[in-house]
Amino acid sequence: MKRYGQVIGVRPDKIAEYKRLHAAVWPDVLAMISACNIRNYSIFLREPENLLFASFEYHGTDFAADMAKMAADPVTQEWWSVCMPCQNPLATRGDGEWWAGMEEVFHHD
Question: Alpha carbon of 96 to those of 80, 89, 92: distances in Å?
């Protein structure tokens, strides 16, 4: 298992919409997240900075393949198309990233 952390901005005028969307995530999207070996997935909002922080555990053996599977799913693509206009990616994110990856510097169970 590997833990991941990611960060992205959220547009101030879209915060209520983002919260509404995530209060009722589509069942097929949740099923795909699980099918791609992601567990313990949370998204947190920090205001007034308007940052979203995502944290999840990956329990699979091929992260790239599972992320490609998720990206190829038509329902997930549709979900992203309604969520992405709410988001404001960081200018400092890595090549190919939408959510900026983060380094884990501490963990305690």
Answer: 15, 11, 12
Structure tokens at 74: 């038509």
Q: Which domains does the chain have, with CATH numbers?
A: 2-101 (3.30.70.1090)
Q: How confident is the model at residue 6 (pLDDT cuts 50, 70, 90)?
A: very high
- For 32-74, the pLDDT digits (tens) are 999 999 999 999 999 999 999 999 999 999 999 999 999 999 9
pTM above 0.90, yes or no: yes
Nearest to 10 by CA among 20, 104, 72: 20
> Do 14 and 82 touch, CB atoms closer than 8 A?
no
Q: Give the catalytic positions in this structure.
A: 22
- Determine the pLDDT at residue 13: 98
CB atoms within 10 A of CB 43: 15
What the block records as the tokens of 43 is: 């998204």
